[in-house]
Amino acid sequence: MADKIRVLVVGACGKMGSEVVRAIDGEPDLELVGAVDHSHTGEDIGSIALGRTNGVLVDNNLERALAKAEPEVCVDFTRPEGLFSRIQTVLNAGVHPVVGTTGLTQVELADLSELCNRLQKGAIIAPNFAIGALLMMKFAKEAARFFPAVEIIELHHPKKVDAPSGTAIKTAEMILETQTKQQSEATQIESVHGVRGGELGGVRIHSVRLPGFVAHQEVIFGGPGQVLTIRHDSMNRESFMPGVILAIRKVRELTGLVYGLDKLIGHHDDTDSI
Ligand code: NAD
Predict the structure, then answer these.
(1) Is 79 in the pocket of ligand 1 (CB under 6 A)?
(2) Is the CB–ligand 1 distance for residue 36 below 6 Å?
(3) Residues 246 and 230 grouped into a single domain
(4) What confidence score (pLDDT) does residue 227 get?
(5) Domain count across the chain
(6) 181 shares a domain with 155
(7) Ligand 1 center to residue 2 CA distance, Å?
(8) How far is the CA of 102 from the centre of ligand 1 (A)?
(9) 21 pLDDT band (50/70/90 cuts)?
(10) Are residues 45 and 176 in the same domain?
């Protein structure tokens, strides 16, 4: 068998990061070589995520961990603060980033794309790694050709730090690729401020944060006499793992930044594996 792909996980002790550690452990062609997190420094990541030691100790310094572990791919599921410079650090170390952390601005994405081109390095940043969510966005883009108005409701667990979700923003952007301006009816009287949600290019977005939810979204299209609702539910974090694993395998073949996993699943064989 060819050499295993060496992977470092940043945010390895978090909910998504530890799920990624478990997913990597289940893939024969991948090897976890490093774990970075602000918490559990010096502890064995295997004890935290796998229920057995694996000899990889949690480091709280990304530069040091990159130099020590020499990964080919660095997966980031952390928080938006410092994310931009973390991705720059990874790229400048010659490592391919796979980023699930949401919250980067359009300007930051453009700057990172430029850096990837300059370094001739592949990177993947995806606001949603779940295949069902990708299909929901794709179907929403298709439906936008036929309906004059749309609103998005995204529902997440209350610990999510950013609102709206990266998926909701990406969905609105994809809808706007089809229709440059969506009709958003102005409300005559808004007795509770903000009750009609936020707006991106005419697409209304509503963010719900409640215990019990993981990651869910409804895209509701309205037209004369009919309504079309497209809904996706991630019931647990395992739903994101096939997409993350696909990105780890693909990123090394890329040159430049790919934003959104949809660009990687055009081929039948890839979709089968998700
Ligand atoms: P979490 O709070 O459970 O985990 C975050 C972890 O990152 C924590 O262990 C924390 O200590 C660590 N951390 C924070 N800042 C750090 C830093 N600067 N350096 C090193 N470690 C740091 O959060 P979570 O639920 O795992 O979500 C993480 C991110 O993933 C969020 O941005 C969330 O929106 C995103 N997310 C993306 C997808 C997707 O498909 N793209 C799916 C789910 C969640």
Answers:
(1) yes
(2) yes
(3) no
(4) 98
(5) 2
(6) yes
(7) 31
(8) 9
(9) very high
(10) no
Give 32's pLDDT tier (boundaries 50, 70, 90).
very high
Q: Characterise 45 by phi-psi region: left (phi > 0), alpha (psi -120 to 50), beta (else).
A: alpha
Ligand 1 centroid vs 18 CA: distance in angstroms? 10
Catalytic residue numbers read 156, 160
Residue nearest to ligand 1 atom 14, measured at CA: 78
Atom 37, ligand 1: which residue's CA is nearest?
A: 100
| CATH value at residue 51 | 3.40.50.720
Question: What is the rounded CA–CA span in Å between residue 62 and residue 71?
Answer: 12
Average predicted confidence (pLDDT) for the chain: 93
Query: How far apart are the CA of 158 and the centre of ligand 1, in A?
Result: 14
166 CA: nearest ligand 1 atom: 34
141 plus 119 within the same structural domain: no
- 139/226 same-domain check: yes
111/186 same-domain check: no
Q: Which residue carries 């409804």 as its tokens?
A: 218
Q: What's the rounded Cα separation, in Å, for the pair 31 and 152? A: 39
Q: Domain span at residue 65?
A: 5-125+237-273
**What is d(CA 246, CA 261) in angstroms, rounded to the nearest whole number?**
9
205-225 pLDDT tens trace: 999 999 999 999 999 999 999
Judgement on whether residues 216 and 244 belong to the same structural domain of the protein: no
CA distance 96 to 74: 6
Q: What's the start-to-end Cα distance of the chain, in Å?
A: 22
Do both 38 and 109 map to the same domain?
yes
> Is pTM beyond 0.85 here?
yes
Pocket flag, ligand 1, residue 77 (CB < 6 Å): yes
**Which tokens hold the place of 221?**
């299209």
pLDDT above 90 as % of the chain: 86
For position 2, what pLDDT does the model report?
Answer: 74
The C-alpha atoms of residue 38 and residue 191 are separated, in whole angstroms, by: 43
State the closest ligand 1 atom to the C-alpha of 126, by its place in the atom list counted from 1.
Answer: 41
